[in-house]
Amino acid sequence: MRKLYLIVSLLLVVHTLIGQSDTLRAHRLLEEAEALMQQSKIQDAILKSQEAAMHYAELYDSVSMEVAKAKKITGIGYAMLRAPNMALPYFQEVLEIHKKILGERHLEVGNDYNNLGIAYRGLGERDIALVNFEKAVVIYKGTIKDSEQKLIAPYSNMANIYKMDYDFHKSILFRKEALRIVEKEKMGADYFKHFEIQKDIGGDYFIQLEFNKALDWYQKALVGFEEYLAPEHVNFIDLRSDLANCHCELGNFMQGAFFVSKNEEIIRKNYGMEDVRFARNYIIAGSCFLKSGQPKLAIDKYRKGLKILKTNYAELTLDLMNVYLMLGIAYAKLNDYENALLNYKSGLDLTGSSQGVGNTETYYMPCKLFLEMGRSCSMKHETSKNENDLEVARQYIDKSMAMIKKMTTNYTHESSKTFIIDHFFQVFDYAIELNLALYEIDPKPAYLEKIYELIEETNHVLLFDALREDEMLANYGVSEEQLVQKQLLEDSIAYWELESYKAEESDNHKTNDEIKGKLFDYNKKYTDLYKVLPEAIFDKKQSGIPTITEVQDHLAPDETLVEYFNGDSLLLAFVINKDHYELISLDGRDIAQLVNDFRIGIASYNPFDTQQGKVASRYHSAAISLHEKLITPIKHLLKQKLIIIPSGELNFIAFDALLEAAPTNHLDFKSYPYLIYKHEIRYTYTTKILLRKFVDQQNFENKLLAYAPTFNKAKMVASFPERSLSFAPLQFNKQEAENIAILTGGICYSGREASKENFIRNAPVTEILHLATHAKANQDALGFASIAFGNQSKEQLFAKEIYTLNLPAKLLVLSACETAIGTEIRGEGLFSLGRAFTVAGVQSIIASLWKIDDQQSAEVMTNMYENLVAGQAKSAALHQAKLNYIKQAKNALAHPSYWAAFTLHGNNDKIYFPKRNFIAWGVGLLLVSIITFLVFFFKRKK
Question: Sorting pLDDT into bands at 50, 70 and 90, what band is 941?
Fold first, then answer.
């Protein structure tokens, strides 16, 4: 018995020792995995952590903290290798283990949600990623009492989501919020995170092609990395790569080569020549050689990088696609178009089997590959003179454009869409160039019609889609309930975006966190709604672009439509008359500088300046040159009435004020040969808007409402997007609004009655709206141009709010500064208040291109309404009012600064006014004038 006891005891000891040995082995494996991760030897770390997890599961249970720790390291490793599809299941397992052991609100669970967000982000599941980051934020805020530092990770990760969405305003905003926390917390040894965030901000600017800003942030990060990180740290290697890329883009090839060489030495010594970083360093070196005009050396570097990637990292699809793209470009530089096309096709072949590639990259890389294939075929044609090469090139460019359209459909946020259109504007530009080349070889009408379609769509892609979508919603059986739901969600999103913007500007971080939560919820609902709408709504094949024949049918015999295209390499004018159309190539050199001189010459005019001759000279010199470039080549095609669709910088000029020739007397502004003397000019955004049919609403409750708010001189707008802005008093806006109300039989609201609430309540049932007030074109933040109904922030009506309104007014007059200008996006035109009211449904809008004098504006506007009441069409009424002003004004006030700012966008239908007793009206107006004079006279006597 005693022997048996000894044997059992011995077995127990042996079993315990073996168990301890297995436990020690598992611990050692985990420690080795952690050490390898610190050394950035990721693949080795993954193998060790997987082995540790297996041992822990055998020793304890699959649901244990040790297993969770090991699997977490595995997931992080795959995430670092950019294999989110491999990382995701590990992060999911870890989350479930921690929730069972620690509960739903534990700090570790917050970390797990953050890691899950990273994996979903890598897979392109942006909405799911944001949900997980938001959950992490909620848990951190609920568990952290005195420190915000845990919030840095989800804030930075949310910034990366917005970066994927091309919403760089929000991306940089979240990064700066994380930066604020780092600085506030004074995080000791972890203070290097401050510099990591600076590096990421540099990356945001790099993608926006703002290389000088990117370099500035990268150099700030470099200072910290040199102090806090070892040279071989993976983040430091990445930063040197970023610096090399940035210097290369700026043409600083020696500096770029320095960082490439430094990285090569460090990577070879610490990670080996088969490491993914070595491959990426080869690729950056190749790009430096390519941009410095050495494509053969570039090809050598690209091939070496490609070999490493294909051998060891075949799952890194995006890296491989990028190398094939760059190889193709390098071969094209050597005029070896066959090899260029072979590499582009190799890149495209990867799209069918790619793993871990999200929606953005699914279209982004093919878009670039198709573009370069088109370019190579086009350049091949220059040697071969084979027309088929141009046809093939056009087909590839069409495929590239299809990718752009898929990307814009994939996003719901306007800022994301505008970035894509601006970033890929060269595709539209090149498509037009190719069709033009084909037309010059063989002038088929089909090519000319295609150029017209491309110009029409390219000038205002999103505006066009918004108008088209409204039609499609009405035509494809969308239920009334869905339409109401869509409108309510759009209203809610606009409201919370505005509240978030105000909170950002006032640095109210706590309030803004709550607002962002609501905004996220509404955006998610909006995305979900779109998933159940009929697919036909998003069918881009149904373009809805009016044909040239339809445009001709709409034009009167004395009208000409001129649609400009101002691209990277082309300046075109598509001229359409009732019985003829023609495409004219124009001289686009120095257009941007001439437009700038034109505007400065007008904006800086001061009648009391003794040096006004110099200012006038700058204006008229630019106005003459612009006329020579934009009007003279098409002069023989123009009728008396012009409808102009501007493009690019041309949106910022008043064609009325262009000059046919040099003035005989530089200071005699009445005698200047203005284009307004030859042509009656109006504008439109697209021909689709020009031909837009409106239901003739007969039951307007109000004929005209005129608004003239009061502004206090010294009052500042505390939470307005530009907090330094104060609105000066307007001396003549009330008089302007009252006169117009009397002329038209309308109602004037002034002072406190002229409120934002009043406008929103009454505008939908009013035929004519007149706003004599202040406005601000916000060129820094899309959708936040505003029109003021008072000094308080709550009295500002923002463009984002206007988009959600339903305004069937036949005419809206924005008698305020800068209401026709805003943020200019290539391929989209101006995001202005005028554009916002067009989307809201207003038929015609009169808006201003620059800051205007309220007294002179009142004269022009009053006379215009007199002309409208007398039966003139809108364009004729404004045209004649300007001519009358020039004729009657003193010479110093006849400068275009005072009368040319106002532009008419939209249709030119007459507005009918009820017949009135004009004798009684005249007597009434005279009595009002007498009373006003007497009140002023007796006040002055007192």
Answer: very low
